[in-house]
Each structure stands twice: as structure tokens, then as C-alpha cells.
């Protein structure tokens, strides 16, 4: 499996991977000029020791590259883990509507997917809103998207440059596509932060997809790095 669909139109795809669980073991044991080709129980214990005691540099010798298609509100939260990361091996390249004019797509939650504001927090969300309010929210969002797309096409058809025409598009729900390359340590840090129950629900779903794809490549190391 290399691709997992997320939300209504989004996905996470594992594009490439460098290393496996033995990469971490060999990086740790190079100090003693030791190397292994096949993971043993002793190697697994070493990985557990490294993760438990936060000897994290060996986990930065393995990398994963993902292609992600997600609403902009998810992308901008995700981006914080690149600009704010103290881990090495981070890269991000995103498609730009300065250069491409492909048909825009938008994340439109169903009428039963709208959530209430939380009672005791300035961020996150609470329980689902009632059906009537959810339906009203759905119709209002669809109307906003429709008008934005109309104005975007009008601007392009009348010769306005793409980098300004995009101003008409409702930004936060618009899908964007990017490549994210990160060390195994960085991937684990992202998963630990974004699968928590207080994280935005939409990015939780992407984090679970990343976790599932990464576990196939690093079943031992990632299991030790991820919080129980």
C-alpha cells in the first residue's frame, strides 16, 4: 500500500523511502564499526533503548517522502513542523497557482460533519452541531465556493494574471498538493503531535494515514518513537 485517501478528495501517498529498521541500528553502531543486515532481537532492544532515552540522531538517517493533497488549513498547520522543527532532513515543495490553473477543488464537509466550538478552549472543536445548523453551514459554504470559482474564471478569461486571479478563491478549504520529505524522527514527532485528540480533526486523519504508511517501512523504530 502506498496511498491512503483522506477526507472527501484528499490523500497521502508514500513516494519514496530511504532505509529501514536496520538503518537506525547501523547508524548507532557505526561508533563500534559494527553492521547488521538482518534485524535481530538484540537490534530491536537497541532501537527501544535509543527511543526511550531520546538518543535520536540514528533515527535521522532514515527518510520518507510523501505526496499530500489536503485543504490549505491542514497544509498550513503541517508547515509549522517544517519551519519550527529542530530535526534535520526536512523539505517541502508545494504546487502554486502562480504557475498552474488546474481546476480548483475544495474541502466541503457534509451537513453532519460540522462541529461546535469547544467549551473550555480557544482552539479545537466540540460535539457536532444540530442537523439544521449543519445543513445551513453546508449551503453557505457551497455558495461561497461557487461564487469564488465564478469570479476566478472571470478574472482569467478577462486577462488577469493567475497569481492575482487566485485571490477570488476561498483559500482555507481549497486543496493544495505538496511533497514532504522528512527524517523518521520528524515523521514520528508530527504523528505524536497530530494524532492527539485535541488536534484539529482533519489533520488527525492525515496523521493517521502518514502513520499507517510509515509503519509499513519502519515497524520497529516507529512503534518505539510513537507515544503509547
UniProtKB/TrEMBL annotation:
Q: What is this protein called?
A: FAD-dependent thymidylate synthase
Q: Name one GO biological process term.
A: dTMP biosynthetic process
Per the UniProt entry, what species is this protein from, by scientific name?
Pueribacillus theae
InterPro entries per the UniProt record, alphabetical: Thymidylate_synthase_ThyX, Thymidylate_synthase_ThyX_sf
Source organism lineage?
Bacteria, Bacillati, Bacillota, Bacilli, Bacillales
Q: What is its EC number?
A: 2.1.1.148
- Composition skew (Polar residues), residue ranges: 113-124
Taxonomy, superkingdom: Bacteria
Select a single GO molecular function from the record's annotations and give it. NADPH binding
Question: Positions of the region Disordered?
Answer: 109-130
Amino acid at each position: 500500500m502506498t496511498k491512503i485517501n483522506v477526507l472527501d478528495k484528499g490523500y497521502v501517498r508514500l513516494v519514496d523511502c530511504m532505509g529501514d529498521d536496520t538503518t537506525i541500528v547501523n547508524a548507532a553502531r557505526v561508533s563500534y564499526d559494527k553492521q547488521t543486515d538482518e534485524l535481530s532481537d538484540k537490534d530491536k532492544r537497541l532501537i527501544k533503548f535509543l527511543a526511550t532515552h531520546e538518543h535520536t540522531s540514528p533515527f535521522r538517517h532514515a527518510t520518507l517522502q510523501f505526496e499530500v493533497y489536503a485543504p490549505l488549513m491542514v497544509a498550513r498547520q503541517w508547515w509549522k513542523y517544517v519551519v519550527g522543527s529542530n530535526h534535520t532532513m526536512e523539505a517541502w515543495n508545494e504546487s502554486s497557482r502562480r504557475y498552474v490553473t488546474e481546476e480548483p477543488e475544495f474541502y466541503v464537509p457534509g451537513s453532519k460533519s460540522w462541529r461546535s466550538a469547544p467549551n473550555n478552549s480557544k482552539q479545537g472543536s466540540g460535539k457536532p452541531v444540530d442537523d439544521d445548523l449543519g445543513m445551513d453551514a453546508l449551503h453557505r459554504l457551497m455558495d461561497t465556493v461557487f461564487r469564488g470559482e465564478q469570479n476566478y474564471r472571470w478574472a482569467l478569461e478577462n486577462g488577469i494574471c493567475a497569481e492575482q486571479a487566485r485571490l477570488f478563491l476561498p483559500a482555507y478549504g481549497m486543496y493544495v498538493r505538496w511533497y514532504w520529505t522528512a527524517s523518521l524522527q520528524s515523521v514520528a514527532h508530527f504523528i505524536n503531535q497530530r494524532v492527539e485528540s485535541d488536534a484539529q480533526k482533519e489533520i488527525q486523519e492525515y496523521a493517521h494515514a502518514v502513520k499507517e504508511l510509515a509503519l509499513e517501512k519502519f515497524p520497529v523504530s516507529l512503534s518505539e518513537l510513537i507515544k503509547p
